[in-house]
Amino acid sequence: MLPENAKAIITSADEKMQEAIAFLEEDLRNYRVGKANPSIFNNVVVDYYGTPTPIPQVSSVTTPDAKTIVIQPWERSMISKIEKAILDANVGLTPMNNGEVIRCNVPPLTEERRKELIKKAKAAGENTKVIVRNVRRDAVDLLKKAQKNDNLPEDAEKEGEDEVQKVTDKNIKVIDGVIAAKEKDIMTV
């Protein structure tokens, strides 16, 4: 049975690892994979009265079908600014406006672009694994410090290290699963 201070270190490490995975999942959601996805514009900012603001905060972003994204600004004066922001963001979409709304047709991905996206997703996965391993290292250091300061028996410190390793392995598996699912999504035509 682990002492409370060791459990707290392990729980904190697991939470930090989960946060890194949540960030990875959010990042992967922004990849354009040949299907209309409004979250593509979450990181595209437009100048809204001097303040850089994400497109979804100045307009309605909808997907009427699988290949079209429609952006309807709440103020007509924003149409040209939003159009310019989309072009500047280089998200691979060409905006077309009719004076009221902006339409972006989502072109099918080329094989080359799919491979680029998979490479990018794998790199993001590796970066997340590095973060998880750094959290593991920090947790092990905290356990060793606690043992050195006589707050933790030596066998509890070793058991804590084993628990941290189990939590790390579990989270690395989750990351592999997230990347594999994204890779499958990207390769689906």
Oligomer: single chain
Mean pLDDT: 87
Rg, Å, rounded = 23 Å
Unreliable sequence segments: none
Distance between the termini: 51 Å
Assign the structural class, choosing from mainly alpha, mainly beta, alpha/beta, alpha+beta, or little secondary structure: alpha+beta
Largest sheet: 4 strands, antiparallel
- In DSSP terms (H or I, runs of 4 or more residues), the helix count works out at 4
In CATH terms, the superfamily of the largest domain is: Ribosome-recycling factor
Give the helix level as a range of percent.
55-70%
* Number of E strands: 6
Strand fraction equals: 5-15%
Kindly report the spatial arrangement of strands forming the biggest sheet.
Answer: 3-4-6-5
N-to-C SSE series?
A: HEEEEHEEHH
The CATH topology annotation of the largest domain reads as Topoisomerase I, Chain A, domain 4
Domain module count: 2
CATH architecture of the largest domain: Orthogonal Bundle
Shape: elongated
